[in-house]
Amino acid sequence: MNSIFKDLKCPDCGERYAANIIQTVCVNQSCLSSLFATYDKVSKTSNELLDEDNYSMWRYSAFLPVLNPKNIISMGEGFTPIIPLKNLKYKDNENNVFWKDESGNPTGSFKARGISAALSKAKELGITEVSIPTAGNAGGALAAYSARGNMQAHVFMPKDTPKVFKDECRLYGAKLTEIDGNISDCGKIAQALSIANNWFQISTLKEPYRLEGKKTMGYEIAEQFDWELPDVILYPTGGGTGLIGIWKAFNEMEEMGWLDSRRPRMVAVQSNSCNGITTAFLTNQEDSAAIDNGFTIANGLRVPKPYASKIILNVLRSSAGTAISINDVKIEAALKEIAKKEGMLIAPEGAALWEAYKQLVDSNWIMQNEKVLLLNTGTGYKYLENLKV
User: Fold this and answer.
1) Which CATH number belongs to the domain containing residue 282 in this structure?
2) Cα 361 vs. chain centroid, distance in angstroms?
3) Which terminus in the chain has less CB density within 10 A, N or C?
4) What is the distance between the alpha carbons of residues 323 and 316, in angstroms, rounded to a whole number?
């Protein structure tokens, strides 16, 4: 299906940018926002615009930014299952609770979606060498997709990241630099070296196209629930690309008439280690402060200050949602409970959602009979050295 991609737009100041040249963020110094891809307005049905023979995220290629299909770098990412809870119960509630399980993606996480879209567009724009600061999964995905697309990846990762994340980057041929610090420290060094060496930075929400890959989760959620969205979506929030992307997808589908105006209440779930979004939301702040209390077993949640923190907070408030943070002891307990009851060894970032769900039920924020979706971002196998088994 041909893409109807048009241009890029700043969601803050409204400035538009051409899509046929390399872009990063809004150049307005009072803004510097992430840029959003925009698409031509159409009134076609889902049957007319979806590639129904394609069971990957490229099923939605009409709403992805790659104009020439020959530039797509894909390994079958996306169209992951939605699985109802079978044995895991809490307070005998009558909620319909589901997992959107991203662990089956290439390299074991939802990062494959964003990296597939970003690298495909980078290839279309003539880019051959890329860099990324990462807490783990995004680095592995960039390394793998760069190998697939015959590109060179430079990955910057905290030293205390589990060894398996480092090993996979090296096995895929990426040049890995370990940093004594957090992902923000990695970002500073990656930026300096990228500028010096002319590498294109595939940093979270500092380029426009990872967001487009992540938003396909929103299209899948709508389609897999037969175009009736759940009441609540819980999302593990580090950089927050997926949370923003899912909301963007819902907006696009509403504009086409595929969805009505009813939306899920979005919940950002963070680690107590880095809970700036939660703190800002609960204290009614427009933006979040940088908070880093050190190591967490949910490595992907150790993001002191997301670049698009204002947009994340806006999504939460627009959806009448909330934010909540969970400590490592409860994250690990939830991970083990899910494994023993459901037979799913999920990422600690995803396990945090089960504890968050229970706390939101306790406070009556989630009500009886509501349909709830928990988004597991990846496999737990990569995190075994973080756990006490």
Assistant:
1) 3.40.50.1100
2) 25
3) C
4) 8
